[in-house]
Amino acid sequence: KEHEEKEVALFEKVKQWLDIYFSGKEPDFTVPLHFTGTDFQNEVWEILCTIPYGHTMTYGEIAKQIAVKKGLPRMSAQAVGGAVGHNEISIIVPCHRVVGTNGSLTGYAGGIEKKVELLKLENVDVKQFSIPRKGTAL
């Protein structure tokens, strides 16, 4: 019974967060998260959670952050892309805020159109990015 009540409370909090988000506002609270990926994936997902509402970050910038943290000369942006692609809590863990170094909107499991709409919802000027044409392989 207590476990069920905690689950209901969590779902209510997630629903409230999503309602605020989809009304075009930044939620002023966070949802408790528990990542279940590899250490590397968890590290990438934690960085995603630090990207401010209405801002973007490149795969390369995330890779650089991880490299610095680990004391490595460099880290693969493609590896970061792989971890971003395995994020199962999109929107709350905002993988839609990650863009290509060249300004391209690539790699969103929900589709590029949804990525564009989410960024617009956050008042990001999407004209600064190149949007692949429909049917273009990413």
From TrEMBL:
The species this protein belongs to is: Candidatus Mediterraneibacter tabaqchaliae
Q: What are the GO BP annotations of this UniProt entry?
A: DNA repair; methylation
EC number of the protein: 2.1.1.63
Which InterPro entries does the annotation name? MethylDNA_cys_MeTrfase_AS, MethylDNA_cys_MeTrfase_DNA-bd, MethylDNA_cys_MeTrfase_DNAb, MethylG_MeTrfase_N, MGMT_N_sf, WH-like_DNA-bd_sf
Q: Where are the transmembrane segments?
A: none
What keyword terms does UniProt attach to this protein? DNA damage, DNA repair, Methyltransferase, Transferase
Q: Which family does it belong to?
A: Belongs to the MGMT family.
Catalytic activity annotation: a 6-O-methyl-2'-deoxyguanosine in DNA + L-cysteinyl-[protein] = S-methyl-L-cysteinyl-[protein] + a 2'-deoxyguanosine in DNA; a 4-O-methyl-thymidine in DNA + L-cysteinyl-[protein] = a thymidine in DNA + S-methyl-L-cysteinyl-[protein]
Residue ranges of domain Methylated-DNA-[protein]-cysteine S-methyltransferase DNA binding in the record: 39-124
Specify the Methylguanine DNA methyltransferase ribonuclease-like domain's residue ranges: 3-34
What protein am I looking at?
methylated-DNA--[protein]-cysteine S-methyltransferase
